[in-house]
């Protein structure tokens, strides 16, 4: 359907293609530009009252019934009698109204935003009201993500150009062409996540578009490479048999992609591409001081970790770092207000002095990295601690290799790290933006404690606490996200790991608009908590192991046709501030972890 829509737009109204991609993906700007609509449900409701003449109490009643403000708005619209047909809504105008809404700040901004929303609402016809309101409340739910929308556009480009240029009507290798083009555009977007650059280039180059058409630009964050979970050192070694690899400490901090731009300025981006430069003025000074004179432009991958300068730069926990302000969205900090110091541990380089290094093997990228910086003062700017295992020593039967890695892993724990990363050095050792591949593995302590890895889950509901916890919420109902179905699927109840002050904070946080009057249709669970929450937070949860559950719906259909997956003995570890609810652990992640647990049991039945 998307492909057909784009084909029509490409042929009839090409200027609408770019805004359509934005609207379909529910974005108004590139992620790193931190542009937000900043509209609450209550502002949309108030505009709806005025646009449709429906009372607030009626809207509330309908919302209780339907559970989706878009559906409510559509129902209000349908019952409304219009005196004159509204002027049509145009794609470009809707997009530009959203952009205008996003720049309204200061006094009177709510009134101006409402007036822009009203103008849009008054022009809605047919199903437009439903999707306009869903767009405004950032919950579009059309079952399409960037990785669906961009390939649809790429395919529309290919199909339209074959019609134009292929007189004989031959559709030779069309399937291959469509697949190649779809992959190329997604790859290009991972390296340059800016629709303003990718979409026009795709439209301009047509079938000639390839992922190398667009080069990385310092200042635009690339999608970070991700790591796969392993069952431990043995499994990692098995995957790298006869291949050179490296082990690095897995630091427990916050990922930072550090860019040096052509104008010499430095900018920092979080794991999900939000700019966080103003949260790290000290990081900017540290990196500036470590650059060699010929380090003109670069893009680095690093972990920022809190350190105790009075205690030999001892690494501190992630919680200490996050006390510098909530991650992700910019919270400015001045140099003299800094209470928690940091060290930057750099582990990769993707771009150096105008050269894109993604295709270079890690061994070579490391050489670039080490040539660019001074590492003189420990505890400020350091390369991730590492050991190298050459291909000859990379075998499961080598006691010496196993002992070397186990000792390195133990040392990483002693140094307050989460474990180690195991990465290919030469074979398939390029930097793959946004991918979880077998060439980047993580070995964490959780494996030894039970689960291979922790989960990032969203609290979607809670019960009223009893006894000592009366007056607070306990337990909380936690869910993962399934991007394919756009559902939050319950995984477990969690009631341990919280401090009293956290309970109090959550009681205040989950109130007002954040408590839903009924279970939304996209919450999948057989649990019936006392209240349902809107998806707002992401918490890291650890447990003992996975079980198949008749109550919880996580990954339902992936490992069992009707049952979901749950975790036993879950406990709260921390709030993951730099992740949005739809970026939490996915149903597929949980299914993969469940399978890897089953494999572990299969290989060692006697244990
Ligand atoms: P986790 O919750 O385990 O950190 P994640 O989903 O955030 O997982 P993964 O890709 O699974 O991310 O694990 C890699 C993360 O580990 C990176 O995002 C980075 O923040 C952190 N990290 C710490 N040290 C390193 C290192 N030496 N190399 C790569 N990543 C590292």
Automatic annotation (TrEMBL):
The family database entries (SUPFAM superfamilies) matched by this protein are listed as: ATP-dependent DNA ligase DNA-binding domain (SSF117018), DNA ligase/mRNA capping enzyme, catalytic domain (SSF56091), Nucleic acid-binding proteins (SSF50249)
| Gene3D superfamilies named among the record's database cross-references | 3.30.1490.70, DNA ligase, ATP-dependent, N-terminal domain (1.10.3260.10), DNA ligase/mRNA capping enzyme (3.30.470.30), Nucleic acid-binding proteins (2.40.50.140)
- Localisation per UniProt entry: Nucleus
What Gene Ontology cellular-component terms does the record carry?
Answer: nucleus
For whether the record's keyword set contains DNA damage, the answer is: yes
Q: Does the keyword Iron apply?
A: no
Q: EC no.?
A: 6.5.1.1
Principal location listed in the UniProt entry: nucleus
GO terms in the biological process aspect are:
DNA biosynthetic process; DNA recombination; DNA repair; lagging strand elongation
Q: CDD domains from the entry? A: Adenylation_DNA_ligase_I_Euk (cd07900), OBF_DNA_ligase_I (cd07969)
Q: Looking at its record, which EC class is this enzyme?
A: ligase
A GO molecular function held by the record: ATP binding
Stretches assigned to the ATP-dependent DNA ligase family profile domain = 335-482
Report the InterPro entries cross-referenced here.
Answer: ATP-dep_DNA_ligase, DNA_ligase_ATP-dep, DNA_ligase_ATP-dep_C, DNA_ligase_ATP-dep_cent, DNA_ligase_ATP-dep_CS, DNA_ligase_ATP-dep_N, DNA_ligase_N_sf, NA-bd_OB-fold
Keywords noted in UniProt: ATP-binding, DNA damage, DNA recombination, DNA repair, DNA replication, Ligase, Nucleotide-binding, Nucleus
Q: Which reaction does it catalyse?
A: ATP + (deoxyribonucleotide)n-3'-hydroxyl + 5'-phospho-(deoxyribonucleotide)m = (deoxyribonucleotide)n+m + AMP + diphosphate
State the PANTHER family in the record. DNA LIGASE 1/3 FAMILY MEMBER, DNA LIGASE 3
Family assignment from sequence similarity: Belongs to the ATP-dependent DNA ligase family.
- Name assigned to this protein: DNA ligase
Species for this entry? Pyrus ussuriensis x Pyrus communis
């Amino acid at each position: 359907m998307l492909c057909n829509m784009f084909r029509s737009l490409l042929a009839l109204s090409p200027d609408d293609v770019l805004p359509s991609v934005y609207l379909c993906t529910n974005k108004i700007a590139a992620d790193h530009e931190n542009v937000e609509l900043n509209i609450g449900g209550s502002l949309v409701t108030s505009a709806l009252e005025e646009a449709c003449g429906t009372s607030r109490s009626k809207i509330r009643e309908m919302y209780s019934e339907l559970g989706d403000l878009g559906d409510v708005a559509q129902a209000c619209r349908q019952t409304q009698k219009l005196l004159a047909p509204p002027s049509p809504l145009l794609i470009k105008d809707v997009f530009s109204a959203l952009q205008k809404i996003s720049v309204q700040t200061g006094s009177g901004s709510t009134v101006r935003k409402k007036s822009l929303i009203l103008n849009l609402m008054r022009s809605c016809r047919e199903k437009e009201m439903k999707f306009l309101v869903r767009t405004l409340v950032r919950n579009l739910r059309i079952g399409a993500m960037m990785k669906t929308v961009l390939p649809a556009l790429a395919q529309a480009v290919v199909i339209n150009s074959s019609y134009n240029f292929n007189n004989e009507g031959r559709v030779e290798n069309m399937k291959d062409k469509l697949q190649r083009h779809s992959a190329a555009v997604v790859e290009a977007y991972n390296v340059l996540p800016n629709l303003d650059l990718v979409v026009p280039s795709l439209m301009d180059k047509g079938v000639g578009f390839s992922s190398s058409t667009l080069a990385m630009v310092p200042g635009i964050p690339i999608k970070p490479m991700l790591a796969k979970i392993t069952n431990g050192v043995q499994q990692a070694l098995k995957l790298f048999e006869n291949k050179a690899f490296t082990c690095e400490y897995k630091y427990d901090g916050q990922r930072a992609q550090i860019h040096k731009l052509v104008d010499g300025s430095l900018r920092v981006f979080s794991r999900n591409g939000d700019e966080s430069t103003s949260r790290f003025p000290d990081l900017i000074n540290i990196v500036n001081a470590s650059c060699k004179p010929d380090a003109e432009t670069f893009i680095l991958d690093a972990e920022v970790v809190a350190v105790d300068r009075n205690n030999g730069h001892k690494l501190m926990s992630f919680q200490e770092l996050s006390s510098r302000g909530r991650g992700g969205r910019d919270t400015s900090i001045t140099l003299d207000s800094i209470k928690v110091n940091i060290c930057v541990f750099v582990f990769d380089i993707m771009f150096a002095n105008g050269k894109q290094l993604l295709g270079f093997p890690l061994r070579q990228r490391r050489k670039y990295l080490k040539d660019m910086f001074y590492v003189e003062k420990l505890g400020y700017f350091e390369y991730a601690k590492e050991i190298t295992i050459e291909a000859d020593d990379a075998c499961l039967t080598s006691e010496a290799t196993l002992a070397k890695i186990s000792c390195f892993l133990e040392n990483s724990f002693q140094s307050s790290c989460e474990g180690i990363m195991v990465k290919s050095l030469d074979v398939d050792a390029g930097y793959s933006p946004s991918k979880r591949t077998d060439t980047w593995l993580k070995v964490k302590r959780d494996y030894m404690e039970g689960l291979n890895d922790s989960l990032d889950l969203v609290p979607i509901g809670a019960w009223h606490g009893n006894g000592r916890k009366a007056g607070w919420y306990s337990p909380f109902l936690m869910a993962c996200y399934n991007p394919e179905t756009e559902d939050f699927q319950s995984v477990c109840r969690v009631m341990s790991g919280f401090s009293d002050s956290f309970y109090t904070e959550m009681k205040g946080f989950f109130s007002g608009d954040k408590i839903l009057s009924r279970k939304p249709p996209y919450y999948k669970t057989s649990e019936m908590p006392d209240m349902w929450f809107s998806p707002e937070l992401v918490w890291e949860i650890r447990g003992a192991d996975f079980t198949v559950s008749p109550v919880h719906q996580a990954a339902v259909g992936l490992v069992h046709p009707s049952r979901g997956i749950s975790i036993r003995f879950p406990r709260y570890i921390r709030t993951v501030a730099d992740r949005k609810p739809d970026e939490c652990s996915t149903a597929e992640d949980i299914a993969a972890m469940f399978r890897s647990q089953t494999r572990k049991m299969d290989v060692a039945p006697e244990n």
